[in-house]
Automatic annotation (TrEMBL):
Membrane topology of the entry: Multi-pass membrane protein
GO cellular component term of the entry, any: membrane
Source species of the chain: Prasinoderma coloniale
SUPFAM superfamilies for the chain: Calcium ATPase, transmembrane domain M, HAD-like
UniProt cross-references to PANTHER family, sorted A to Z: CALCIUM-TRANSPORTING ATPASE (PTHR42861)
Protein name: Cation-transporting P-type ATPase C-terminal domain-containing protein
UniProt-recorded Gene Ontology molecular function terms: ATP binding; ATP hydrolysis activity; metal ion binding
Family recorded in the similarity comment: Belongs to the cation transport ATPase (P-type) (TC 3.A.3) family. Type IIIA subfamily.
Keyword field contains Plastid: no
Keyword vocabulary terms for this entry: ATP-binding, Magnesium, Membrane, Metal-binding, Nucleotide-binding, Phosphoprotein, Transmembrane, Transmembrane helix
Subcellular location: Membrane
Amino acid sequence: GVEVKMITGDQLAIGKETARQLDMGTRFVDSPDLFAPGPHPDLTPDGLQRDAVIREANGFAGVFPEHKYAIVQTLKKLGFTVGMTGDGVNDAPALKVAHVGVAVADATDAARGASDIVLTEKGLSVIIDAIIESRCIFQRMKSYVLYACATTVGIVTRFSVLVWAFRFNMPPFMILILAYLNDGTIMTVSTDRVSPSRTPDVWRLWKLFIEGIVIGLYLAASTVVFVVVARETNFFVDHFNLRDAEEIRFGDSTQNDSGVNSFVFHNVVYLQVSILGQAVIFVSRSQGFFFMQRPSILLALAFVIAQLVATFIGVYANWGFTKVRGAGWNWAGVAWVWDIIWFLPLDLVKLSVRLMMSPSTWGHFNYKSVAQPLFHKPHKEAEERRRPTSARPMGLATSIEVLTMHPSG
């Protein structure tokens, strides 16, 4: 996702051969000819648009300091985010004007002062490592924002509807436990295993909010439908032989421990909300289907522990002070089966929202686009780039600067 261009003061033939050995492309331009004065400042002596030549070139040879500055300025004008590496005094103007100036190890004080980043290790592989790591961090941030938005919308919506429609009063203490367990699980996202994107990321927060709102409404619907089935039908009585279900259906919701406000049903709803709410993390962290990106052991372990605690609370907790009573294993089984059924289509909901927000991708959508993280091995690629110097092609140039860029926006 990052295009690399070589800038060197050596001759054109040397630059081409070095780039060929490094597999960087051989579309090289001789800078004195590119910037030769002429009657038209925007054209080369051959009559070509100078900006287009700079855009399409893989590298530039015979470069003078003022040419480096002009090349960086041109690429910025074309709408690219530009990074520049260098080590000498003559690189300082280009390093200063680039969006990200990187001074390599052993750079002069002038180059260091003009740069945004100073490398402490020799070589450029650390830049690749930094790009990969930053993209991993970005993916974790997106996962957290999407999860937080979805769970917040889900909790607020579901309990608001239940209060207005059924006079259901969820004990505040149970919501507090729900929040603690959720926070404990979400903290492990910081160490989650993620796949960096193949192209530079753009922080489009509004898309994450829309996606989170839709998923949150889906979560709310799962709970509301669950309460409606328990309150208005004999489904749980007929299929699971749950005697408490009759009490929920025929009880008086305005009374304590009766109807949908029975202490048992408080616990059942708590468990249903907890399971599906935390399971959303596996959907929010994946680019495609959740089972195609293996989570970190810590994240999976945190989810298992949190849901074991939630399940035992739902089954055994007899806490009169907060109006809950143990629901038993039958109700716990019902909550788990219900949430698993509602969890499976969540990826389709997520991907559908993303497709609707990016209609330009409709004609290109296929299974590979969602399965890509399964086959992409970024760490292996990074290791390949970190090969020892003796294993890499030998360069012929004596002084080479590297220009990296990607489209902005």
